[in-house]
Amino acid sequence: MRGTVVVCGLVLGLGLSGNLTEARDLPGPGSRVCLAVDVVDPSEGRPGRTRVFTARETGALELRAWLHPRLSGEHTLRLKLFTPRGYLYQEIAVPVSAGSASPRRQGGGRDGVSPAATRRAGGGDREDHGRRRLTPVRARLPVAGTAITVGSLLGRWRVVPYLDDQRTPCGRARRFVIER
After folding, report:
1. Which terminus of the chain is less hemmed in, N or C, by CB atoms within 10 Å?
2. In terms of Cα–Cα distance, which of 145, 93, 136 is closest to 116?
3. Alpha carbon of 34 to those of 44, 72, 101: distances in Å?
């Protein structure tokens, strides 16, 4: 019996140390991969302080995510959108070629991928984020004529960023409101 407890403890210890190694690789408070996520009405351009949008006047919303500039390689940024009741409404996957933190491919509207390219150098789409000027990864969330307006899914929404297949968010969730 005592040998079984030691073996179980050893196996559990090995399993936990493996998880700790993986946990170190996940973004933590000091090392977030997704620095920020914002929701913008493209007709207004810059995000407002309130992040309140009207369903009647908003054709689509633009989701912007800023990734850490040291991220490298090919990745997929997954933006999960949750309804006011907490149900998963949609997951938008945006392929990202890291290092430039810009989409790998340009596509028109399918899966919410914005057709507008983000630029690696120069001005253009770059925006201030803290002290750095970073290029946001963009995705589109249609509002008009969708289940949001037809089903009156009005209220406080939440968008949560994930990188690749990680189960833990790569940054903080952003809340926004869609009202009548």
Report:
1. N
2. 136
3. 24, 13, 10
Q: Does domain 32-179 have CATH number 3.40.47.10?
A: no
Alpha carbon 146 to chain centroid, angstroms: 21
* CA–CA gap between residue 31 and residue 168 (Å, rounded): 13
Q: Which two tokens stand for residue 41?
A: 């009405």
CA-based Rg of the chain, rounded to a whole angstrom? Answer: 19
46 class by beta-carbon count within 10 Å (0-12 exposed, 13-18 middle, 19+ buried): exposed
DSSP string covering 35-104: EEEEEE-TTT-SPPSS-EEETTT-SEEEEEEEE-TT--EEEEEEEEEE-TTS-EEEEEEEEEEETTTEES
Structural domain boundaries in the chain: 1-30, 32-179
For the entire predicted model, the pTM comes to 0.68
Which CA distances in Å does 50 have to 5, 46, 89, 119, 143? 56, 12, 22, 28, 18
Name the residue with higher pLDDT: 120 or 100. 100
At 123-151, the pLDDT tens digits run 334 455 454 568 889 999 999 999 999 99
User: Whole-angstrom Cα distance, residue 98 to residue 134?
Assistant: 12
Q: Which amino acid is at 55?
A: A
Residue 33 CB: number of other CB atoms within 10 A?
23
